[in-house]
Amino acid sequence: MTFDANRFVSPEASETPRAKRSLLFAALSLTALLAACQTASVPNVISLDKAQGSSENLASLTATLNADPRNPEVYNVRGTAYGRAGQNRDAIKDFSTALQLDPNFYQAYANRALVYRQLGDSKDALADYNAAIRLNANYDKAYIGRGNLYRTAGRNREALADFQKAIDLNTTDPRAYHNRGLLYQRDGQHKQAIEDFSTAISLQADAPEPYSGRGVSYLALGDDENAFNDFNTALKLDDKSAEYWTNQALVYERRNQKSRAFKSYARAAQLDPSYKPAKDGMDRTRGGA
Asked: Can you say where the TPR repeats lie in this chain (predicted)?
């Protein structure tokens, strides 16, 4: 469900100046792309398993609406199912119908906002998150969604305030901690970032992003062992991520295990041929012992 950071690892004294610059560039590029990926993969406000975006489930929800066409709850649920299936326009239509039937349906505003975000419509997304918060000032998921919108727009102070508000509301949504951790990481506050990533992991242990984020901060603090463990855990959870393979390769390279580093960089480049940190890493470690 990808990390912003503008200050990163202090390379080891044994590295050459060129290697220092290359590793730093790779790490910065990595964290920026991780942030973009996480933003794109933020889960829906209503939690659905994958089957709920299936054609069978959509057909069942449609049958329910045919029998009860003025039920805003069912439109909201079907809209979320459409969103899970990637049918964003249908999702917006259902959320809008739910809001016509119940203008105080703050969950539908937050759900529609998420779909607008997925379509790149930040203006309408922000308006919907604001509407959800006006209707329910204690709705943690709307603060988290709006915070993500602010974060991807570079409005980091506003994003931090929204994530903090959700946490103050005792949210159990791991995204609040994960995304606050990204902001701490961006400002070089790696110990605070590690605490937030750890909390996110405690709330959702099967999500790879917090492990990768925590590993980045461990690496920035010179804790290669814990970083390596986290990067490997992220890969176990998602071995199709070029960023995670590049993370792993960075540790191998720091250990001067260039052959292993090259293999991991090569796997990253195979998964994403346009991913520059992987290609640069391959150039640095090609032919390594």
From this structure: 72-105, 106-139, 140-173, 174-207, 208-241, 242-275
